[in-house]
Amino acid sequence: MLKQTLINNWATAISEIAIEEKKVELFTKTLEELKEVFILNPDVINFLSNRSITISKRLEFVDKIFKSEIDILILNCLKLIIERESFYSVNYIFTAAIKKLWESLNISKGIIYSTIEIDKKLIKIMEEKIHKKINHEIKLENKIDSSLIAGVRIEVANNVFDFSLKGKAEDMKNSILENRK
């Protein structure tokens, strides 16, 4: 993995291009989709990071796969990341860039912990409900946490909303301990 400062530099450059070109929402959506593609297909990252394969072959591969699918500016960013031999950290770069782009749109990122994967429609509903509570636009990412037993826990903008069985048990325990005093 690249050093965090280099990841941040890449992310800053990508987000500045998006802001300058007034394509923040397009970049955010595309980077999220590309990140998902690379997560589901780690062999692509391995191929595009492989220094024993010529850079021209790797760039040709990216052109064939993505040229008609993504904005030329994002395509050029991908190519530059390959040329600078940084592609093995592409998902970290995209994650940091997405965060910067959300910040430029005044959107906070949050995490919704659950015992099973949550449907995207349900996540949207939860985003709207939390938005009403904290009066701030949010984007939730689902992470699995089997220690919750059941329910969900949402962490966003320095707030924690715990609707898990584990959280309820902790609340009951604390209440009993307080009443003993």
TrEMBL record:
Protein keywords: ATP synthesis, Cell membrane, CF(1), Hydrogen ion transport, Ion transport, Membrane, Transport
Any one Gene Ontology molecular-function term assigned to this protein's record: proton-transporting ATP synthase activity, rotational mechanism
Highest rank taxon of the organism: Bacteria
InterPro entries: ATP_synth_OSCP/delta_N_sf, ATPase_OSCP/dsu
GO cellular component term, pick one: plasma membrane
Gene3D superfamilies xrefs: N-terminal domain of the delta subunit of the F1F0-ATP synthase
Pfam families given in the database record: OSCP
Principal location class: membrane
Bilayer topology term: Peripheral membrane protein
Cellular localization per UniProt: Cell membrane; Membrane
Coiled coil: none
Family: Belongs to the ATPase delta chain family.
PANTHER family named in the record: ATP SYNTHASE DELTA CHAIN (PTHR11910)
Described function: F(1)F(0) ATP synthase produces ATP from ADP in the presence of a proton or sodium gradient. F-type ATPases consist of two structural domains, F(1) containing the extramembraneous catalytic core and F(0) containing the membrane proton channel, linked together by a central stalk and a peripheral stalk. During catalysis, ATP synthesis in the catalytic domain of F(1) is coupled via a rotary mechanism of the central stalk subunits to proton translocation.
Protein name as it appears in the record: ATP synthase subunit delta
Source organism of this protein record: Spiroplasma diminutum CUAS-1
Taxonomic lineage from the root: Bacteria, Bacillati, Mycoplasmatota, Mollicutes, Entomoplasmatales
Gene (UniProt): atpH
